[in-house]
Amino acid sequence: MLTHIPNVLTKEKLQAALSIIARNPFVDGRQSAGKMAKQVKHNMELSADAGELSKLNNIVMGSLVQNPLYRSAAIPQRIATPYYARYTEGMEYGDHVDDPVMGAGTLYRSDVSVTVFLSDPHSYEGGELVINTSFGEREVKLPAGDAVLYPSSSVHRVSRVTSGERIVAVTWIQSLIRDAEKRALLHDLNQAREYLLENAPGEPSTVQVNTSYINLFRIWAEV
Q1: What backbone torsions phi and psi does residue 152 show, to the nearest 5 degrees?
Q2: How far apart, in Å, are the Cα atoms of 188 and each of 56, 166, 199, 202, 213?
Q3: CB-hemisphere CA count at 13 Å for 116?
Q4: Within 10 A of 211 (CB to CB), how many other CB atoms are there?
Q5: Where exactly are the structural domains of the chain?
Q6: CATH code given to domain 3-175
Q7: Could you report the per-residue pLDDT of 142-191, keeping only the tens digit for each?
Q8: At 45, which helix (H) or strand (E)?
Q9: Mean pLDDT across the stretch 206-211?
Q10: What are the backbone angles phi and psi of residue 166, rounded to the nearest 5°?
Q11: DSSP 182-199
Q12: Average confidence score pLDDT of the chain
């Protein structure tokens, strides 16, 4: 399931994040890549030693984790510290699958990948996130401040940037619901549940949908 989350970052928070990124150093993105990914990865990443990284994470990740659509779609248990990638002319990231287990010290399983777009899509050419799905390839290039969630098991790539600069934040989630199809069903059911709780509280159908959501969550959750 691909989920578009609009307006993760307000204009003010987006500008604050971009200002921090602009004044901090980048390093070769292959430093964080696995053996296979090193062969197809060609980008730059904000240095882990960047002095304002904690402030940047508070802005970007703080906004993401508070977003109700994100919480409904990802059903997060653990979320990774993000990396911030920059693609300039000629850079790309070829077909790859994200590592199944990540982290140093405390490990986590990557169930859901998230890309938060930080650059205006009109400011660069190319750079689409291309995700292989059961319905074929999907190209994703969203407005600055929007995010997309997709299964970490998906083969995906970033098309070559032919002009301009593409900046994104990328992170991964271990979900309480490991199975992607079950997670998608719960997300759809929760959207109906939230609507009914808001518009028809106390109705028998609302109680029934709410109870079904809660008990399915109880059956499928891994804690």
Answers
A1: -65, -20
A2: 32, 31, 17, 21, 10
A3: 28
A4: 11
A5: 3-175, 180-220
A6: 2.60.120.620
A7: 999 999 999 999 999 999 999 999 999 999 999 999 999 999 999 999 99
A8: strand 44-46
A9: 97
A10: -105, 125
A11: HHHHHHHHHHHHHHHHHH
A12: 95
Over residues 125-133, the mean pLDDT reads 97
- Per DSSP, the three-state class of 37 is helix
Give the model's pLDDT for residue 31.
78
The residue type of 190 is N
Nearest to 178 by CA among 82, 106, 109, 99: 109
Q: What's the pLDDT at 134? A: 87
- pTM of the shown model: 0.94
Residues 123, 125, 126, 127: what is their CA dihedral angle, to the nearest 10 degrees?
-20
Q: How far apart are CA 189 and CA 211, in angstroms?
A: 11
The string of DSSP letters for 98-122 reads: --SEE-SSS-EE--EEEEEE-S-GG
- Predicted confidence (pLDDT) at residue 73 exceeds the cutoff of 90: yes
Note the pLDDT of residue 34.
66
- Rounded to whole angstroms, the Cα distance separating 82 from 17 reads 13
- Residue type present at position 51: G
Which residues on adjacent β-strands are paired with residue 32? none
